[in-house]
Fold:
Amino acid sequence: MPTLQISGSCDAAFEGVRRVFEQNFREQNEVGAGVSVVVDGRCVVELWGGHADQARTRPWQQSTLVNVYSTTKGMAALCAQRLVDAGKLDLDAPVARYWPEFAAAGKERLPVRWLLSHRAGLAAVRGDLPGEALYDWDAMCRALAAETPWWTPGERHGYHAVTFGWLVGEVVRRIDGRSLGTYFREEVAKPLGADFHIGLPDPEHVRVAEMGAIPPPEPGGEGMSLAALIAGDLTSVAARAFLNPPSMMRGPNVPEWRRAEIPGANGHATAHGIARIYGALARGGEQDGVSVLSRAGIERCREEQSFGRDHVLQISTRVGQGFMLSQDAPLASFGPSPGAFGHPGAGGSVGFADPSRRVGFGYVMNRMGPHVLLDPRADALIGAVYRALG
Structure:
């Protein structure tokens, strides 16, 4: 194995994070990755290493961006919560107040908060969509506005794996006038100096790491029942959620995916970009004079909305208003603080805020893991952070 070179820095108290980060390469077959930790607004860990391509010829740099899949959902939710702070969005109002076409198929009274908490029953589109629809905002929003919910809205929750971004993002667009990616860039990422993008301009594609293939679920792992459901019934909500449009199976290593705005799945970020945003949320919503969200908004984010068996993922999930919450289960906790909130992404990436310890955390990688919620690599890093905090 080539000599492992880890770049970056960390405070002496957090050397344990560096050791775990190195172990992930030596023992967990990490290809390329970055981890960043912000405590009370100060970056105490920023490490990166490995390779940005699967052939291991291109070194991972501090500026390397990587697709973070559903870690993007936290940023989409943050945009909606900012509009609540501004008095422009009422979470208990019908979605149709802001998006009139959404009232079709009996959805005229469905409230906005059910979009954020995965209770809307719109985790997938039933009818076959053309591949190009994945990159066509208007086409996806038309299809979702016309769709009949898969279950009675509000009665259960089921992960809106990709549709979450269009549903929440169209509400943001109807209220603000800007696309969600533009709103996020202009109101959050650029003011904070956070390297996180939803809809990546073509000149930035040279910075993007190549993602590996999605591995099969581990025998007996939490993804087995989901995989079996998809394989056994291609008309199920789970199968349609992950396979319709069929271009989802092409993966993220194509320019169409990178440049599109798919706020449920295609954010591109560095670990530090993620940690900086969550670091601001962890210290009351403000960093370096930039107001990201009010304290009341932070409390809304981590207010439990759904807990228990997820109708799509077939495992237990605990959800706030747009964010995942910790639960007492293996690989499902953002550290020991019960009030932490954030979002993992398929394959392993994750970001979260812990307001009680004023911690913002970001981890990104390009070797896909098989786990549905937290990956063991991220879990080990989180454990090291809290051991350092004492």
